[in-house]
């Protein structure tokens, strides 16, 4: 078994290792959502605290995604409580900033956002149970048995729905 890169924590990563690896990126993400460094730092800290309270963190297949989902939920709740929407960004300003720094990074960021929007659209077209099974498995890292228990269906049905959902996603993505 290959050793894991020290900078990229895996499933058994401690909250401290996650903080070292993803703290700066998480804060930048939260600044982009809230438009405020202080609020972003507070939300990042809260996200790490909540992650550290997860009873079985070793069961999480993708700690980074889980941590960012916690942060996104916190940011959304924070913005709703303030009665504001995520900060709008003028693309012309972003383009000027990107050209002044790293044009390739800006282009990759735009491509990634476009891919995420496309994936969100594809997921939105799936039947609700297919989508729930797919997200519980791929995003949340639950086993077939856990998904079956949560949704009150058999593990065979979970496997069937997951297979169908993945096939539809691949088909829609190829279009």
Provide a count of the helices. 8
Low-confidence stretches: 1-7, 88-102
Mean pLDDT: 78
Form type: globular
- What is the level 1 CATH name of the largest domain? Mainly Alpha
Query: Main beta sheet: strand number and arrangement?
Result: none
User: What structural category do the secondary elements indicate?
Assistant: mainly alpha
The total tally of domains equals 2
How far apart the termini lie comes to 37 Å
Order of helices and strands: HHHHHHHH
* Relative helix content: over 70%
GO biological process, one term: DNA-templated transcription initiation
InterPro entries: RNA_pol_sigma-70-like, RNA_pol_sigma-70_dom, RNA_pol_sigma70_r2, RNA_pol_sigma70_r4_t2, RNA_pol_sigma_r2, RNA_pol_sigma_r3/r4-like, WH-like_DNA-bd_sf
Domain RNA polymerase sigma factor 70 region 4 type: 118-169
GO molecular function: DNA binding; sigma factor activity
Please give a structural write-up:
The chain is mainly alpha-helical. It folds into two domains: 1-90, Orthogonal Bundle (Rna Polymerase Sigma Factor, Chain: A); 118-175, Winged helix-like DNA-binding domain superfamily/Winged helix DNA-binding domain (Arc Repressor Mutant, subunit A). It is 73% helix and 0% strand. It contains eight helices and no strands. The chain has helices at residues 15-34, 37-52, 63-81, 91-100, 103-124, 128-139, 144-151, 155-174. The chain is globular, with a radius of gyration of 18 Å. It starts with 14 loop residues before the first helix and ends with a helix. Belongs to the sigma-70 factor family. ECF subfamily. Keywords: Sigma factor, Transcription, Transcription regulation. One of its GO terms (molecular function) is DNA binding.
